[in-house]
């Protein structure tokens, strides 16, 4: 059978753009094997199903398909699919994956404390007090985040934690008690938004410290951290020998190599339809790709309702409120870290500006607006 792997890119925004330690309401993921006439055969991603395929690139050796789900880290579901020569090789990669996920889950955490670990929560707790000695991985992320700040004209700003944290707290409160659901008062938003100067985050590489000068500034890496960690983990897996697979951390999908189970070597990735009521059309798009990454930002899972209005997690720094331009934005780009950040940025800006930016960075993009109309870059239809 000529089968092509399909991984459901369900609301990649839920981790791509939200706080990476904020829990998602996600179902157990499914991997779908799709044959050439597009009929679907559901395969439980946690099953022990193995599919042997012939790989020309592996000197005609047979490769087995293996899948693993990890639920413990980043408060999301990580789905790992790989084609390997046997179970032992796959188990080696799973161990690498779990070890790396644990490391970055603890370091890139703004809400939880871990014994012996100085993370972003530690840095925030010491804002205005003293520098915090941190792992070099944190310094690398802070420096990278400042580059993303420049790339996105300041709209993706890790120093916006006070404003984003305020919306986070109200979202959690509203979801816990629907009868008392509310949004922050305007005065609270203005006060929180006044403290977002990224230059107040000072890195001393020689000393290995991070210090927030403004005691009211808080770091939030929700639009950057998970994608950056996913890139590093995917690179680590390839260094260990992985040649064919998909790593999906909460929907941030890295396609490693090509698909040995497909005649044309491409993986098929389904983009979730943000209209969750449209049961007949669950996907907005299905794209054929290999050796690249796909990220989607959307408003349809991390949200709460107040007086019939939806308030989601992607905040426009200019308005201080959730952006209302789009329902979802999907980005195809080889660099998963950049794709993660860019999907959030494009969610905030308008279509014309977004098209220009996508061309500048070489990304293919699919936008879906409030009325579920679709717009795309010129190259998107070519991969559908």
UniProtKB/TrEMBL annotation:
It is found in: Cell inner membrane. Its main location: membrane. It catalyses: L-threonyl-[protein] + FAD = FMN-L-threonyl-[protein] + AMP + H(+). Its EC number is 2.7.1.180. Residues 1-18 form the signal peptide. It is a lipid-anchor. It comes from Anaerococcus murdochii. This is FAD:protein FMN transferase. Flavin transferase that catalyzes the transfer of the FMN moiety of FAD and its covalent binding to the hydroxyl group of a threonine residue in a target flavoprotein.
């Amino acid at each position: 059978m000529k089968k092509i792997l399909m991984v459901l890119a369900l609301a990649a925004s839920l981790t791509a753009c939200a706080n990476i330690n904020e829990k998602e309401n996600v179902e157990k993921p499914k991997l779908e094997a799709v044959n050439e006439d597009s009929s679907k055969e559901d395969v439980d991603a946690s099953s022990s199903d193995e599919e042997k395929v012939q790989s020309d690139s592996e000197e005609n050796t047979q490769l087995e398909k293996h899948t693993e789900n990890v639920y413990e880290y980043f408060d999301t579901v990580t789905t790992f699919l790989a084609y390997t020569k046997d179970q032992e090789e796959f188990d080696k990669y799973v161990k690498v994956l779990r070890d790396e996920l644990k490391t970055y889950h603890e370091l890139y955490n703004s809400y939880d404390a871990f014994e012996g670990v100085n993370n972003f929560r530690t840095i925030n707790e010491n804002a205005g007090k003293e520098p915090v000695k941190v792992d070099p991985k944190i310094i690398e992320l802070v420096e990278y985040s400042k580059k993303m700040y420049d790339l996105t004209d300041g709209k993706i700003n890790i120093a916006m934690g006070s404003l984003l944290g305020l919306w986070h707290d109200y979202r959690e409160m509203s979801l816990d008690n629907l009868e008392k659901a509310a949004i922050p008062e305007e005065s609270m938003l203005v006060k929180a938004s006044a403290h977002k100067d990224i230059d107040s985050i000072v890195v001393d590489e020689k000393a290995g410290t991070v210090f927030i000068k403004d005691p009211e500034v808080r770091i939030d890496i929700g639009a950057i951290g998970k994608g950056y960690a996913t890139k590093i983990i995917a690179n680590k897996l390839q260094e260990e020998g992985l040649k064919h697979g998909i790593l999906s951390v909460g929907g941030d999908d890295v396609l490693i190599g090509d698909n040995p189970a497909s005649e044309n070597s491409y993986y098929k990735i389904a983009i979730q339809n943000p209209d969750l009521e449209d049961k007949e059309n669950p996907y907005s798009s299905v794209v054929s790709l290999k050796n690249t990454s796909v990220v989607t930002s959307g408003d349809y899972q991390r949200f709460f309702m107040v007086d019939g209005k939806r308030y989601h997690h992607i905040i426009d720094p200019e308005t201080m409120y959730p952006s209302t331009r789009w329902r979802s934005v999907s980005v195809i780009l080889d660099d998963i870290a950049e794709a993660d950040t860019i999907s959030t940025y494009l969610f905030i800006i308008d279509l014309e500006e977004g098209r220009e930016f996508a061309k500048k960075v070489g990304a293919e993009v699919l936008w879906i607006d409030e009325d579920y109309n679709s717009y795309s870059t010129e190259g998107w239809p070519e991969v559908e």
